[in-house]
Design brief:
The complex is a heterodimer.
Chain A (H helix, E strand, L loop, with lengths): L7 H17 L2 H15 L12 H34 L2 H6 L5 H41 L12 H28 L3 H16 L1 H9 L4 H11 L11 H5 L6 H27 L4
Helix pairs in contact in A: 1-5, 2-3, 2-5, 3-5, 3-6, 3-7, 5-6, 5-11, 6-7, 6-11, 8-9
Chain B lengths: L1 E12 L8 E12 L3 E5 L6 H9 L6 E6 L2 E2 L9 E4 L11 H11 L7 H11 L15 H13 L5 E5 L7 H16 L3 E6 L2 H7 L2 E6 L2 E7 H5 L16 H11 L14 H13 L7
Parallel strand pairs in B: 3-8, 3-9, 6-7, 7-8
Antiparallel strand pairs in B: 1-2, 1-4, 4-5, 9-10
Helix pairs in contact in B: 2-3, 2-4, 3-4
Classes of the chains: A mainly alpha, B alpha/beta.
Chain lengths: 278, 287
Protein backbone atom coordinates (compact mmCIF):
# COMPACT_ATOMS: atom_id res chain seq x y z
CA UNK A 1 0.00 0.00 0.00
CA UNK A 2 1.48 3.33 -1.08
CA UNK A 3 1.43 5.95 1.61
CA UNK A 4 -0.33 9.25 0.88
CA UNK A 5 2.22 11.92 1.74
CA UNK A 6 1.42 15.45 2.91
CA UNK A 7 1.00 17.47 -0.27
CA UNK A 8 1.71 21.17 -0.71
CA UNK A 9 -0.17 21.02 -4.02
CA UNK A 10 -3.40 19.92 -2.30
CA UNK A 11 -2.88 22.51 0.42
CA UNK A 12 -2.46 25.21 -2.24
CA UNK A 13 -5.58 23.94 -4.01
CA UNK A 14 -7.61 24.36 -0.81
CA UNK A 15 -6.01 27.79 -0.25
CA UNK A 16 -6.92 28.88 -3.78
CA UNK A 17 -10.48 27.68 -3.34
CA UNK A 18 -10.77 29.52 -0.01
CA UNK A 19 -9.48 32.73 -1.60
CA UNK A 20 -11.88 32.42 -4.53
CA UNK A 21 -14.80 31.87 -2.15
CA UNK A 22 -13.86 34.94 -0.09
CA UNK A 23 -13.58 37.13 -3.18
CA UNK A 24 -16.88 35.91 -4.63
CA UNK A 25 -18.62 36.44 -1.29
CA UNK A 26 -17.63 40.09 -1.75
CA UNK A 27 -15.99 40.08 1.67
CA UNK A 28 -12.68 41.41 0.34
CA UNK A 29 -14.11 44.08 -2.01
CA UNK A 30 -16.39 45.36 0.77
CA UNK A 31 -13.57 45.74 3.31
CA UNK A 32 -11.26 47.31 0.71
CA UNK A 33 -13.97 49.78 -0.21
CA UNK A 34 -14.51 50.79 3.41
CA UNK A 35 -10.75 51.03 4.11
CA UNK A 36 -10.27 53.09 0.93
CA UNK A 37 -13.12 55.40 1.91
CA UNK A 38 -11.56 55.82 5.35
CA UNK A 39 -8.13 56.53 3.89
CA UNK A 40 -9.57 58.91 1.34
CA UNK A 41 -11.56 60.71 4.01
CA UNK A 42 -8.26 61.75 5.59
CA UNK A 43 -8.06 64.28 2.76
CA UNK A 44 -11.21 65.96 4.06
CA UNK A 45 -9.79 66.33 7.59
CA UNK A 46 -6.33 67.58 6.74
CA UNK A 47 -7.00 70.87 8.54
CA UNK A 48 -7.54 69.01 11.83
CA UNK A 49 -4.14 67.46 12.05
CA UNK A 50 -3.51 68.32 15.68
CA UNK A 51 -0.15 69.88 15.08
CA UNK A 52 1.40 67.13 13.01
CA UNK A 53 2.17 67.66 9.36
CA UNK A 54 -0.44 67.10 6.71
CA UNK A 55 1.32 64.13 5.08
CA UNK A 56 1.89 62.45 8.43
CA UNK A 57 -1.81 62.87 9.22
CA UNK A 58 -2.84 61.17 5.96
CA UNK A 59 -0.33 58.38 6.61
CA UNK A 60 -1.56 57.86 10.19
CA UNK A 61 -5.18 57.66 9.11
CA UNK A 62 -4.27 55.38 6.19
CA UNK A 63 -2.35 52.87 8.31
CA UNK A 64 -5.00 53.13 11.03
CA UNK A 65 -7.65 52.14 8.45
CA UNK A 66 -5.41 49.38 7.07
CA UNK A 67 -4.93 47.85 10.52
CA UNK A 68 -8.47 48.34 11.82
CA UNK A 69 -10.35 47.00 8.80
CA UNK A 70 -7.64 44.42 8.20
CA UNK A 71 -8.19 43.07 11.72
CA UNK A 72 -11.93 42.79 11.04
CA UNK A 73 -11.25 41.05 7.73
CA UNK A 74 -8.71 38.72 9.32
CA UNK A 75 -10.99 37.59 12.17
CA UNK A 76 -14.24 37.39 10.23
CA UNK A 77 -12.74 35.70 7.16
CA UNK A 78 -10.85 33.10 9.22
CA UNK A 79 -13.89 32.14 11.29
CA UNK A 80 -16.46 32.41 8.52
CA UNK A 81 -14.56 30.58 5.77
CA UNK A 82 -13.82 27.73 8.18
CA UNK A 83 -17.30 27.40 9.66
CA UNK A 84 -19.06 27.70 6.30
CA UNK A 85 -17.36 24.40 5.35
CA UNK A 86 -18.45 22.76 8.61
CA UNK A 87 -22.02 24.06 8.53
CA UNK A 88 -22.56 23.23 4.86
CA UNK A 89 -20.97 19.78 5.40
CA UNK A 90 -18.69 20.37 2.41
CA UNK A 91 -15.73 19.63 4.68
CA UNK A 92 -16.96 16.03 4.63
CA UNK A 93 -16.66 15.79 0.85
CA UNK A 94 -13.15 17.26 0.97
CA UNK A 95 -11.91 15.00 3.78
CA UNK A 96 -13.52 11.94 2.16
CA UNK A 97 -10.84 12.32 -0.52
CA UNK A 98 -7.25 11.29 0.24
CA UNK A 99 -6.63 14.61 2.00
CA UNK A 100 -4.90 15.09 5.35
CA UNK A 101 -6.71 17.21 7.88
CA UNK A 102 -3.50 19.25 8.18
CA UNK A 103 -3.71 20.03 4.46
CA UNK A 104 -7.26 21.27 4.94
CA UNK A 105 -6.64 23.55 7.92
CA UNK A 106 -3.33 24.90 6.61
CA UNK A 107 -4.97 25.38 3.21
CA UNK A 108 -7.67 27.45 4.89
CA UNK A 109 -4.98 29.51 6.64
CA UNK A 110 -3.12 29.91 3.35
CA UNK A 111 -6.29 31.17 1.65
CA UNK A 112 -6.87 33.77 4.36
CA UNK A 113 -3.20 34.85 4.24
CA UNK A 114 -3.53 35.33 0.48
CA UNK A 115 -6.70 37.35 1.02
CA UNK A 116 -4.94 39.55 3.58
CA UNK A 117 -1.94 39.99 1.28
CA UNK A 118 -4.17 41.23 -1.54
CA UNK A 119 -5.93 43.53 0.93
CA UNK A 120 -2.65 44.97 2.30
CA UNK A 121 -1.16 45.44 -1.18
CA UNK A 122 -4.25 47.25 -2.47
CA UNK A 123 -4.73 49.52 0.55
CA UNK A 124 -0.98 50.31 0.81
CA UNK A 125 -0.87 51.10 -2.93
CA UNK A 126 -3.90 53.35 -2.54
CA UNK A 127 -2.30 55.10 0.43
CA UNK A 128 0.98 55.56 -1.44
CA UNK A 129 -0.90 57.03 -4.41
CA UNK A 130 -2.82 59.38 -2.16
CA UNK A 131 0.39 60.53 -0.41
CA UNK A 132 2.13 61.04 -3.76
CA UNK A 133 -0.77 63.15 -5.02
CA UNK A 134 -0.87 65.19 -1.78
CA UNK A 135 2.88 65.68 -1.73
CA UNK A 136 2.91 66.79 -5.38
CA UNK A 137 0.20 69.36 -4.62
CA UNK A 138 2.15 70.63 -1.59
CA UNK A 139 5.38 70.83 -3.59
CA UNK A 140 3.65 73.07 -6.10
CA UNK A 141 2.12 75.25 -3.39
CA UNK A 142 5.28 75.56 -1.28
CA UNK A 143 8.41 74.57 -3.28
CA UNK A 144 10.69 75.94 -0.56
CA UNK A 145 9.63 73.33 1.93
CA UNK A 146 10.66 70.53 -0.46
CA UNK A 147 14.08 71.77 -1.58
CA UNK A 148 15.60 68.42 -0.59
CA UNK A 149 13.01 66.49 -2.62
CA UNK A 150 10.09 64.35 -1.50
CA UNK A 151 9.82 63.75 2.24
CA UNK A 152 7.69 60.58 2.30
CA UNK A 153 9.76 57.36 2.33
CA UNK A 154 7.73 55.31 -0.16
CA UNK A 155 9.92 52.22 0.22
CA UNK A 156 9.24 52.41 3.95
CA UNK A 157 5.51 52.39 3.16
CA UNK A 158 5.91 49.08 1.35
CA UNK A 159 7.70 47.56 4.35
CA UNK A 160 4.98 48.93 6.64
CA UNK A 161 2.34 47.22 4.51
CA UNK A 162 4.29 43.96 4.70
CA UNK A 163 4.62 44.19 8.49
CA UNK A 164 0.87 44.86 8.83
CA UNK A 165 0.23 41.78 6.68
CA UNK A 166 2.37 39.68 9.05
CA UNK A 167 0.46 41.04 12.04
CA UNK A 168 -2.92 40.32 10.43
CA UNK A 169 -1.66 36.86 9.47
CA UNK A 170 -0.81 36.05 13.10
CA UNK A 171 -4.28 37.23 14.11
CA UNK A 172 -5.84 34.99 11.42
CA UNK A 173 -3.87 31.97 12.66
CA UNK A 174 -4.97 32.68 16.24
CA UNK A 175 -8.64 32.94 15.15
CA UNK A 176 -8.34 29.73 13.13
CA UNK A 177 -6.89 27.99 16.18
CA UNK A 178 -9.97 29.00 18.18
CA UNK A 179 -12.25 27.98 15.28
CA UNK A 180 -10.60 24.56 15.05
CA UNK A 181 -12.14 23.53 18.38
CA UNK A 182 -15.03 26.03 18.75
CA UNK A 183 -18.60 24.98 18.02
CA UNK A 184 -19.83 28.26 16.51
CA UNK A 185 -18.42 30.96 14.29
CA UNK A 186 -19.77 33.65 16.63
CA UNK A 187 -17.63 32.27 19.46
CA UNK A 188 -14.57 32.21 17.19
CA UNK A 189 -15.19 35.82 16.05
CA UNK A 190 -15.67 37.10 19.61
CA UNK A 191 -12.61 35.20 20.83
CA UNK A 192 -10.66 36.66 17.90
CA UNK A 193 -11.56 40.22 18.89
CA UNK A 194 -10.68 39.56 22.56
CA UNK A 195 -7.35 38.13 21.42
CA UNK A 196 -6.76 41.25 19.32
CA UNK A 197 -7.27 43.48 22.39
CA UNK A 198 -4.98 41.28 24.49
CA UNK A 199 -2.27 41.33 21.81
CA UNK A 200 -2.51 45.12 21.46
CA UNK A 201 -2.16 45.55 25.24
CA UNK A 202 0.70 43.07 25.64
CA UNK A 203 3.31 45.79 25.98
CA UNK A 204 1.38 47.41 28.87
CA UNK A 205 1.01 44.02 30.54
CA UNK A 206 4.72 43.33 30.14
CA UNK A 207 5.56 46.70 31.68
CA UNK A 208 3.35 45.73 34.62
CA UNK A 209 5.04 42.34 35.05
CA UNK A 210 8.38 44.09 35.03
CA UNK A 211 7.40 46.13 38.08
CA UNK A 212 6.49 43.08 40.20
CA UNK A 213 8.68 42.30 43.20
CA UNK A 214 8.39 38.53 43.15
CA UNK A 215 10.67 37.14 40.49
CA UNK A 216 8.69 33.89 40.50
CA UNK A 217 5.38 35.66 39.80
CA UNK A 218 7.10 37.91 37.26
CA UNK A 219 8.65 34.94 35.46
CA UNK A 220 5.38 32.99 35.52
CA UNK A 221 3.37 35.86 34.14
CA UNK A 222 5.96 36.65 31.49
CA UNK A 223 5.86 33.02 30.42
CA UNK A 224 2.06 33.16 30.31
CA UNK A 225 2.29 36.41 28.34
CA UNK A 226 4.19 34.56 25.61
CA UNK A 227 0.94 32.80 24.69
CA UNK A 228 -0.09 36.00 22.91
CA UNK A 229 2.18 38.03 20.63
CA UNK A 230 2.97 41.66 21.36
CA UNK A 231 1.32 43.58 18.52
CA UNK A 232 3.08 46.82 19.49
CA UNK A 233 6.19 45.37 17.85
CA UNK A 234 4.40 45.53 14.50
CA UNK A 235 3.54 49.23 14.80
CA UNK A 236 6.33 50.61 12.64
CA UNK A 237 4.19 53.11 10.74
CA UNK A 238 4.98 55.90 13.23
CA UNK A 239 8.67 55.45 12.53
CA UNK A 240 8.10 55.84 8.76
CA UNK A 241 5.70 58.75 9.26
CA UNK A 242 8.35 60.53 11.30
CA UNK A 243 10.75 60.24 8.36
CA UNK A 244 12.73 57.33 9.81
CA UNK A 245 13.79 54.19 7.97
CA UNK A 246 13.18 50.54 8.68
CA UNK A 247 16.31 48.44 8.77
CA UNK A 248 16.45 44.98 7.24
CA UNK A 249 17.36 43.65 10.71
CA UNK A 250 14.20 45.11 12.22
CA UNK A 251 11.98 43.77 9.42
CA UNK A 252 13.69 40.37 9.62
CA UNK A 253 13.22 40.26 13.40
CA UNK A 254 9.53 41.08 13.11
CA UNK A 255 9.10 38.50 10.32
CA UNK A 256 10.80 35.81 12.43
CA UNK A 257 8.63 36.74 15.43
CA UNK A 258 5.45 36.53 13.29
CA UNK A 259 6.53 33.26 11.66
CA UNK A 260 7.17 31.70 15.08
CA UNK A 261 3.64 32.55 16.24
CA UNK A 262 2.15 31.51 12.87
CA UNK A 263 3.87 28.13 13.15
CA UNK A 264 2.79 27.53 16.74
CA UNK A 265 -0.82 28.61 16.18
CA UNK A 266 -0.99 26.72 12.87
CA UNK A 267 0.45 23.58 14.49
CA UNK A 268 -2.01 23.77 17.39
CA UNK A 269 -4.91 24.32 14.96
CA UNK A 270 -3.86 21.17 13.06
CA UNK A 271 -3.70 19.23 16.34
CA UNK A 272 -7.18 20.42 17.45
CA UNK A 273 -8.75 19.78 14.04
CA UNK A 274 -7.28 16.27 13.83
CA UNK A 275 -9.23 15.36 16.96
CA UNK A 276 -12.42 17.19 16.04
CA UNK A 277 -15.53 15.08 15.39
CA UNK A 278 -17.20 16.21 12.18
CA UNK B 1 -11.57 -9.82 -0.10
CA UNK B 2 -14.54 -7.83 1.17
CA UNK B 3 -14.75 -4.25 -0.07
CA UNK B 4 -15.93 -3.03 3.34
CA UNK B 5 -15.49 -4.78 6.68
CA UNK B 6 -17.19 -3.35 9.76
CA UNK B 7 -16.25 -5.17 12.97
CA UNK B 8 -18.10 -4.49 16.21
CA UNK B 9 -18.30 -0.74 15.75
CA UNK B 10 -19.46 1.17 18.81
CA UNK B 11 -19.67 4.95 18.88
CA UNK B 12 -20.39 7.12 21.91
CA UNK B 13 -20.91 10.89 21.80
CA UNK B 14 -20.59 13.15 24.83
CA UNK B 15 -22.45 16.40 24.25
CA UNK B 16 -20.68 19.36 25.90
CA UNK B 17 -18.09 19.03 28.64
CA UNK B 18 -20.28 17.38 31.25
CA UNK B 19 -23.07 15.87 29.13
CA UNK B 20 -24.22 12.31 29.56
CA UNK B 21 -22.75 9.81 27.14
CA UNK B 22 -25.00 8.93 24.20
CA UNK B 23 -24.45 5.62 22.40
CA UNK B 24 -25.04 6.16 18.68
CA UNK B 25 -23.82 2.75 17.50
CA UNK B 26 -23.60 -0.44 19.48
CA UNK B 27 -21.43 -3.30 18.21
CA UNK B 28 -22.33 -3.14 14.54
CA UNK B 29 -20.73 -5.83 12.38
CA UNK B 30 -21.25 -5.97 8.63
CA UNK B 31 -19.35 -7.35 5.63
CA UNK B 32 -19.88 -5.99 2.13
CA UNK B 33 -18.48 -7.88 -0.83
CA UNK B 34 -16.97 -6.24 -3.89
CA UNK B 35 -19.64 -5.26 -6.42
CA UNK B 36 -22.45 -5.54 -3.90
CA UNK B 37 -25.09 -2.85 -3.27
CA UNK B 38 -26.09 -2.75 0.38
CA UNK B 39 -28.71 -0.47 1.88
CA UNK B 40 -28.67 0.78 5.45
CA UNK B 41 -32.27 1.16 6.48
CA UNK B 42 -33.46 2.72 9.69
CA UNK B 43 -35.53 5.48 11.22
CA UNK B 44 -34.10 8.96 11.84
CA UNK B 45 -31.49 8.86 14.59
CA UNK B 46 -30.80 5.16 14.21
CA UNK B 47 -27.09 5.79 13.52
CA UNK B 48 -26.97 5.39 9.72
CA UNK B 49 -25.03 8.62 9.00
CA UNK B 50 -22.69 8.00 11.94
CA UNK B 51 -21.87 4.54 10.62
CA UNK B 52 -21.22 5.89 7.12
CA UNK B 53 -18.92 8.61 8.51
CA UNK B 54 -16.96 5.96 10.39
CA UNK B 55 -16.69 3.87 7.22
CA UNK B 56 -15.31 6.89 5.32
CA UNK B 57 -12.92 7.66 8.18
CA UNK B 58 -14.45 11.01 9.13
CA UNK B 59 -15.29 9.79 12.63
CA UNK B 60 -13.23 7.54 14.85
CA UNK B 61 -15.15 4.67 16.47
CA UNK B 62 -15.16 4.33 20.26
CA UNK B 63 -14.62 0.58 19.81
CA UNK B 64 -14.30 -1.79 16.89
CA UNK B 65 -12.62 -1.46 13.53
CA UNK B 66 -13.53 -0.70 9.95
CA UNK B 67 -11.54 -1.46 6.80
CA UNK B 68 -12.03 -0.44 3.19
CA UNK B 69 -10.39 -2.87 0.77
CA UNK B 70 -8.31 -4.12 3.69
CA UNK B 71 -7.03 -0.69 4.78
CA UNK B 72 -8.18 0.73 8.15
CA UNK B 73 -10.68 3.46 7.27
CA UNK B 74 -9.07 6.00 9.62
CA UNK B 75 -6.04 6.12 7.31
CA UNK B 76 -5.91 8.62 4.46
CA UNK B 77 -4.83 5.79 2.13
CA UNK B 78 -8.20 4.05 2.59
CA UNK B 79 -9.97 6.96 0.88
CA UNK B 80 -8.12 6.60 -2.41
CA UNK B 81 -10.81 4.42 -3.95
CA UNK B 82 -13.81 5.94 -2.17
CA UNK B 83 -16.50 8.35 -3.34
CA UNK B 84 -18.70 9.86 -0.65
CA UNK B 85 -21.89 11.89 -0.79
CA UNK B 86 -22.96 13.25 2.62
CA UNK B 87 -26.56 13.85 3.52
CA UNK B 88 -27.91 17.09 1.97
CA UNK B 89 -24.59 18.81 1.20
CA UNK B 90 -24.87 22.55 0.62
CA UNK B 91 -21.97 23.35 -1.68
CA UNK B 92 -20.50 26.83 -1.91
CA UNK B 93 -23.12 28.84 -3.84
CA UNK B 94 -20.44 31.03 -5.42
CA UNK B 95 -18.74 28.20 -7.30
CA UNK B 96 -20.02 26.84 -10.59
CA UNK B 97 -20.81 23.14 -10.85
CA UNK B 98 -17.81 22.67 -13.13
CA UNK B 99 -15.43 24.45 -10.72
CA UNK B 100 -16.66 22.32 -7.81
CA UNK B 101 -16.20 19.00 -9.60
CA UNK B 102 -12.81 20.09 -11.00
CA UNK B 103 -11.68 21.03 -7.47
CA UNK B 104 -12.65 17.57 -6.19
CA UNK B 105 -11.01 15.87 -9.17
CA UNK B 106 -7.75 17.62 -8.33
CA UNK B 107 -8.06 16.83 -4.64
CA UNK B 108 -8.73 13.20 -5.41
CA UNK B 109 -5.61 12.96 -7.56
CA UNK B 110 -7.46 12.26 -10.79
CA UNK B 111 -4.96 11.98 -13.67
CA UNK B 112 -3.99 15.42 -14.96
CA UNK B 113 -4.21 14.42 -18.60
CA UNK B 114 -7.74 14.98 -19.85
CA UNK B 115 -8.98 16.12 -16.43
CA UNK B 116 -11.36 18.75 -17.80
CA UNK B 117 -12.86 16.28 -20.27
CA UNK B 118 -13.31 13.77 -17.45
CA UNK B 119 -15.06 16.40 -15.31
CA UNK B 120 -17.38 17.29 -18.18
CA UNK B 121 -18.12 13.62 -18.80
CA UNK B 122 -19.03 13.02 -15.14
CA UNK B 123 -21.25 16.11 -15.09
CA UNK B 124 -22.91 14.88 -18.28
CA UNK B 125 -23.49 11.50 -16.59
CA UNK B 126 -25.49 13.20 -13.82
CA UNK B 127 -27.40 15.24 -16.40
CA UNK B 128 -26.12 18.72 -15.57
CA UNK B 129 -23.95 19.52 -18.57
CA UNK B 130 -26.18 22.41 -19.70
CA UNK B 131 -25.91 24.21 -16.37
CA UNK B 132 -22.38 23.28 -15.34
CA UNK B 133 -21.07 26.84 -15.81
CA UNK B 134 -23.83 28.31 -13.68
CA UNK B 135 -23.22 29.06 -10.00
CA UNK B 136 -24.44 26.38 -7.60
CA UNK B 137 -26.47 29.02 -5.77
CA UNK B 138 -28.89 28.96 -8.72
CA UNK B 139 -29.32 25.15 -8.66
CA UNK B 140 -32.43 23.39 -7.37
CA UNK B 141 -32.12 20.88 -4.49
CA UNK B 142 -32.13 17.99 -6.94
CA UNK B 143 -29.39 19.54 -9.05
CA UNK B 144 -27.26 20.10 -5.94
CA UNK B 145 -27.66 16.47 -5.02
CA UNK B 146 -26.62 15.43 -8.51
CA UNK B 147 -23.57 17.71 -8.54
CA UNK B 148 -22.73 16.10 -5.17
CA UNK B 149 -22.90 12.73 -6.84
CA UNK B 150 -20.64 14.03 -9.62
CA UNK B 151 -17.96 15.10 -7.10
CA UNK B 152 -18.13 11.62 -5.57
CA UNK B 153 -17.78 9.93 -8.97
CA UNK B 154 -15.10 12.11 -10.52
CA UNK B 155 -12.18 10.10 -9.12
CA UNK B 156 -13.69 6.89 -10.52
CA UNK B 157 -14.07 5.25 -7.09
CA UNK B 158 -14.42 1.51 -6.55
CA UNK B 159 -16.46 2.04 -3.38
CA UNK B 160 -19.32 4.52 -3.15
CA UNK B 161 -20.79 5.63 0.17
CA UNK B 162 -24.04 7.53 -0.32
CA UNK B 163 -25.91 9.05 2.60
CA UNK B 164 -29.57 9.54 1.66
CA UNK B 165 -28.73 10.08 -2.02
CA UNK B 166 -32.30 10.97 -2.98
CA UNK B 167 -33.22 13.10 0.04
CA UNK B 168 -35.22 16.15 -1.02
CA UNK B 169 -35.45 15.06 -4.64
CA UNK B 170 -38.69 14.60 -6.59
CA UNK B 171 -39.58 11.10 -7.85
CA UNK B 172 -38.22 11.77 -11.37
CA UNK B 173 -34.84 12.85 -10.01
CA UNK B 174 -34.86 9.98 -7.51
CA UNK B 175 -35.58 7.49 -10.29
CA UNK B 176 -32.68 8.88 -12.35
CA UNK B 177 -30.31 8.58 -9.40
CA UNK B 178 -31.64 5.07 -8.79
CA UNK B 179 -30.88 4.15 -12.39
CA UNK B 180 -27.38 5.57 -11.96
CA UNK B 181 -26.81 3.47 -8.83
CA UNK B 182 -27.99 0.39 -10.70
CA UNK B 183 -25.39 1.11 -13.38
CA UNK B 184 -22.67 1.16 -10.72
CA UNK B 185 -23.44 -2.48 -10.07
CA UNK B 186 -22.84 -3.42 -13.68
CA UNK B 187 -19.56 -1.49 -13.49
CA UNK B 188 -18.50 -3.65 -10.54
CA UNK B 189 -18.55 -0.83 -7.99
CA UNK B 190 -19.47 -1.48 -4.38
CA UNK B 191 -22.20 0.77 -3.00
CA UNK B 192 -23.21 1.32 0.60
CA UNK B 193 -26.16 3.67 0.81
CA UNK B 194 -28.45 4.80 3.57
CA UNK B 195 -32.13 5.56 3.36
CA UNK B 196 -35.20 5.62 5.49
CA UNK B 197 -37.28 4.61 2.49
CA UNK B 198 -37.81 0.82 2.36
CA UNK B 199 -39.07 1.12 -1.24
CA UNK B 200 -35.81 2.65 -2.39
CA UNK B 201 -33.71 -0.02 -0.68
CA UNK B 202 -35.95 -2.71 -2.19
CA UNK B 203 -35.54 -1.27 -5.69
CA UNK B 204 -31.78 -0.72 -5.57
CA UNK B 205 -30.06 -3.04 -3.16
CA UNK B 206 -28.92 -6.65 -3.10
CA UNK B 207 -28.88 -6.69 0.65
CA UNK B 208 -30.41 -4.65 3.46
CA UNK B 209 -29.01 -3.93 6.92
CA UNK B 210 -31.60 -2.64 9.34
CA UNK B 211 -30.39 -0.32 12.09
CA UNK B 212 -32.48 0.59 15.09
CA UNK B 213 -31.22 2.63 18.07
CA UNK B 214 -27.66 2.03 16.94
CA UNK B 215 -27.97 -1.76 16.72
CA UNK B 216 -27.94 -3.86 13.61
CA UNK B 217 -31.18 -5.77 14.08
CA UNK B 218 -31.35 -7.52 10.71
CA UNK B 219 -29.24 -8.13 7.62
CA UNK B 220 -30.59 -10.19 4.78
CA UNK B 221 -30.84 -10.38 1.02
CA UNK B 222 -33.65 -8.15 -0.22
CA UNK B 223 -35.15 -10.87 -2.44
CA UNK B 224 -35.24 -13.28 0.52
CA UNK B 225 -37.09 -10.76 2.65
CA UNK B 226 -39.62 -9.73 0.02
CA UNK B 227 -40.52 -13.24 -1.18
CA UNK B 228 -44.04 -13.99 0.13
CA UNK B 229 -44.15 -17.53 1.53
CA UNK B 230 -44.54 -19.33 -1.81
CA UNK B 231 -47.83 -17.65 -2.77
CA UNK B 232 -48.74 -16.93 -6.39
CA UNK B 233 -50.70 -13.88 -7.56
CA UNK B 234 -52.60 -13.93 -10.85
CA UNK B 235 -53.36 -10.66 -12.63
CA UNK B 236 -56.30 -10.96 -15.01
CA UNK B 237 -58.81 -8.69 -16.76
CA UNK B 238 -62.04 -7.89 -14.85
CA UNK B 239 -63.91 -11.16 -14.25
CA UNK B 240 -67.51 -11.57 -15.46
CA UNK B 241 -70.12 -12.19 -12.77
CA UNK B 242 -70.04 -15.72 -11.30
CA UNK B 243 -66.63 -16.62 -12.71
CA UNK B 244 -64.89 -15.85 -9.44
CA UNK B 245 -67.02 -18.47 -7.61
CA UNK B 246 -66.30 -21.05 -10.31
CA UNK B 247 -62.60 -20.30 -10.17
CA UNK B 248 -62.54 -20.65 -6.40
CA UNK B 249 -64.34 -24.02 -6.61
CA UNK B 250 -61.98 -25.19 -9.35
CA UNK B 251 -58.93 -24.28 -7.25
CA UNK B 252 -60.29 -25.86 -4.06
CA UNK B 253 -61.07 -29.05 -5.96
CA UNK B 254 -57.37 -29.25 -6.77
CA UNK B 255 -56.30 -28.66 -3.17
CA UNK B 256 -55.17 -25.01 -3.72
CA UNK B 257 -56.12 -22.71 -0.88
CA UNK B 258 -57.76 -19.49 -2.02
CA UNK B 259 -56.68 -16.50 0.12
CA UNK B 260 -58.62 -13.59 -1.34
CA UNK B 261 -59.20 -11.09 -4.14
CA UNK B 262 -57.54 -7.71 -4.46
CA UNK B 263 -58.18 -4.94 -6.96
CA UNK B 264 -54.68 -3.82 -7.97
CA UNK B 265 -54.14 -0.06 -8.05
CA UNK B 266 -51.44 1.92 -9.81
CA UNK B 267 -48.92 3.36 -7.39
CA UNK B 268 -49.18 7.13 -7.43
CA UNK B 269 -45.40 7.28 -7.81
CA UNK B 270 -45.60 5.27 -11.04
CA UNK B 271 -48.29 7.57 -12.45
CA UNK B 272 -46.13 10.58 -11.52
CA UNK B 273 -43.06 9.08 -13.15
CA UNK B 274 -44.93 8.15 -16.31
CA UNK B 275 -46.52 11.58 -16.63
CA UNK B 276 -43.79 13.97 -15.47
CA UNK B 277 -40.85 11.76 -16.44
CA UNK B 278 -42.05 11.60 -20.03
CA UNK B 279 -42.32 15.37 -20.21
CA UNK B 280 -38.92 16.11 -18.70
CA UNK B 281 -37.05 13.27 -20.38
CA UNK B 282 -33.72 14.50 -21.61
CA UNK B 283 -34.04 17.72 -19.64
CA UNK B 284 -33.03 18.77 -16.17
CA UNK B 285 -34.95 20.13 -13.28
CA UNK B 286 -34.75 23.88 -13.55
CA UNK B 287 -34.70 26.12 -10.59
Amino acid sequence: MNRVAFSLARMNLIAGNTFREAVRQRLLPLVILVAAAMTGSAMLFRDFHFGSSELKFVMDVGFGALTFFGAILSIVASAQLFFSEIERRTVLTVLAKPVWRAEFILGKLGGVLLLLLVYCVLVTTLLAGLLWWCETALMKADPGAFEAGRTVAYAGLVWCGLVQWLKLGVLAALTLLVASYARSSLFAVLAGFFALVICQLQSLARDYYGMMDSSLARGGLELLGLVFPNFQLFDVADRVAAGGTLSIGLIGGIAAYALAYLSVYGGLAVYCFRHREL
Amino acid sequence: MNAIEIDGITKDFTPGLFGAKVRALDGVTLRIGAGEIVGLLGPNGSGKSTLLKIVVGLLAPTAGACRIEGVPSGRVEARRGVGYLPEAPDFCPHLTGFELVLFHARLGRAPRAGMKERVEAVIARVGLVEVMHRRIGTYSQGMRQRIGLAQALVTDPRVLILDEPTAGIDPVGAAEIGAMINRFKTQGRTVLLSSHSPGQIEDLCDRVALLDHGRLVLQERVDELTRQGGRTALLVDPLPEGVLGELRGWLQARGVEFHGVEMPRSRLERVFLETVGRRSKGGDERS
